[in-house]
Amino acid sequence: MLELGPMLRALMRNKIGALLIALQIALTLTIMVNAIFMMQERNRQMARASGVDEQNTFYLSNTVFGENYPLQSALARDLDQIRKTPGVVAATQINAIPLSGGGWSMGLQTKPGDDVDGTGTAIYFVDTQGIAALGVELLAGENFSESDISWRERSSNKWPPKIIITQTLAEKLFDGDWKKALGQTVYINNHDPMQVTGIVKSLQSPWNGWDNTEHASLVPSQLENKGSRLFIRTEPGRRDALMPQIEKMLADNDKQRIIRNVKTMTETRAESYREHQATNNILLTVIIVLTLVTGFGIVGLAMFSINRRTRQIGTRRALGASQWQIMRFFMLENLLISSLGVVLGIGGAIGLNIWLVSTFAMTPLTPGLLLIGCAALLLVGQLAVSYPALIAARISPATATRGRA
Amino acid sequence: MFSYYLKLAWLSSKRTWGMSLLMVLAIALGIGAAMTTITVNYLMSANPIPQKSDQLFYVQLDAWDPNDPYFDNGDPPDQLTYRDATALWQAKKAPRQSIATGAAGVIEPADKEALPFMAQGRANSADFFPMFDVPFLYGSGWDEQADLNKEFVVVITAEINERLFGGKDSTGQTLRLAGKDFRIAGVIKRWQPQPRFYDISTGAFQDSEEFFVPFSLMAEQILGQSGNNNCWKPTESGFKAYLDSECIWTQLWVELPTKADVEQYQSYIDAYADEQHKFGRFARTRNNKLSDVMTWLEQREVVSEDASMMMAMALMFLTVCLLNTVGLLLAKFLGKASEIGVRQALGASRRDLFLQHLVESGCIGLAGGLLGLVLAWLGLEAVKSMYGDWMAELAVLDVNMVLLAILLAIGSSILAGLYPTWRACQVQPSQQLKAQ
Prior knowledge:
The complex is a heterodimer. By secondary structure, chain A is of the alpha+beta class. Chain A folds into 2 domains: 4-47 and 274-400, no CATH class; 66-255, no CATH class. In chain A, 49% of the residues lie in helices and 19% in strands. Chain A is built from 11 helices and 12 strands. The longest helix of chain A has 38 residues, at 323-360. Chain B contains 14 helices and 12 strands. In chain B, a hairpin with an 8-residue loop joins strand 3 and strand 4. In chain B, helix 1 (2-15) crosses helix 12 (350-387) and helix 2 (17-44) runs antiparallel to helix 10 (305-335). The longest helix of chain B has 38 residues, at 350-387.
């Protein structure tokens, strides 16, 4: 049968050594499971769609410094020129860029009143080509028409009568049923009514870490602003060629302003999640290195204990133990130690998770992940010990009779 | 004796080179990871103005929505309304006070060939410069009269001065900014407090500004305001209404040298808030705060969660590496039992043996520490390239960190060596000799 008795006795003679490995495995499991868990959380955030046609869109900042600059007519001229450029699908002025980190938010409520709690939403001021330029999908209702677009003067606080909102925001405002939202009146600034004339499938806010990041609204206005942005969507594959072309066209036809910050949505996404990505890379490195350190530690200790037991192993071989039995002995020994480590590690992982949840506002760990972590570490232990065990198995039975220096 | 132990350590390490290498590598990896994260945390939580951080106070008033606190934990808003900040600034109840907000504008170089460019700036009152010990290269800041008269004066950075004036003293010259002519009052040396404590509303590790202009110009709508702007109460249309609104976008710092000054100022802002309450504002319960620099940075948690979480992870990682080392050292020292027996039989005392093995552990630690420093440097370079520019000054090893790394490495490896050493000294010489 399995030689559990002798194995335990052998282990008890080197309690500390075994305990050290077990502790190492426990800590490794603790760190590994929590690190993977944190990576999963970040990956989930990064995987959310912005709703924008990211592959084929870019934007630029238009900063005016000339005095008495005709903002409204210049905007019309710029948009007209861009829209006429071959390869451009649509273009709009916009006040903020999804995922970029800077923007405008307001509260919407279904009843007027100062004491009603509003639901936060990002506000994007766009014109008739807003939906087409962003590439968002209109689920219900209709796009803004030319006559809906108002000219919003600087420091104005007037809101146009129409608004298009995202599905998630509609569900939040109208008890989980976005279809009910169409045609309804919502209130902005506590009292100003706006009618929901359309619902878009998804459009994220400029802030990727915001709880309400799926809440966004399109408002049909053009802004009187010396620092505005233009958002442009191109035909597939033509974005990169059109970017410098449009930048140059705009810069050349007007010296009273600077065109800067010409950027694709792909870059914006990468920048937006740069820290997430970096943290994930570091966590992944930690997991790999940690597993290697633990694995090599097991190899080192196993090699040492096999060296010390060369004669015993030889004796066992001489007494008829097969190579496989010797190997099995060490593999099983490791399994025993690793199991102890894993059991301790489960406690540690949950403990650390509780601490992380309370300190860094994370959600609790899933049991599935913990189980996978346990299995992975048992496997690492077995893999690590297999080479020393193989060496042990190859010890010749003759060693038993030879003296050792 | 010490050199003899060193020699013994060297011989012993050579004999079991695989194990020694494993230990050095494990310590190096642990130290590398720990030092990378400790450095980032250490620099993030650094005191940006140590000489007077306990005399500079950030003012917070709570004129926010009576139905909904600004921060979930009840802290007052992190900025002030224009009207409150201006009122407190004008009252001059502190020896020095600096009112400020972010600003941005286009600079047009005098050289018509050069392209105009966008610059980030700060609109602040005169006290800003002496309060925060801003270092001047040429000229100086402006005086209070310039604030009150809304003069077009500007302080620029050495970088802008280099770009526009070839690095020569440009004070008194004209800078075309936001479509107006500004008189250059001074040029400041490179000044990048980390964290940028005086304005953390858009992130604590932003670059410092390229130009500074009087705050009073903000009311003239010449420069664009940049930075955060939060409103809870609907406002009327028009810029005048905006200035009078409950929108928060202004910051106020006061310099209060003594404890008595602090108490006086606190009662002053409380009285101010109570008075405003009578006019129907400040509907929330009295919630006005004065925080010195470090308290303010802690309250707003400028050390990012990721950074402290990574440090926790890295320290646990170091623990794993040390456990690894303990196990390997134990194996190694016990493997030397016969040698220890011989040394004891030849007259070495337990103390000698103890020292000998501690030296050996220490050497492994030192080697691991040095290699760990190289890894930490590599780690910081990786952090810089992955996180981007704002990390550039937060990922630098200084003398303190190098010393800490070496001490941590030697200290922890000696600690790791204690138990194995103790076990090694328990060897019975007679048994070992018999076994030969």
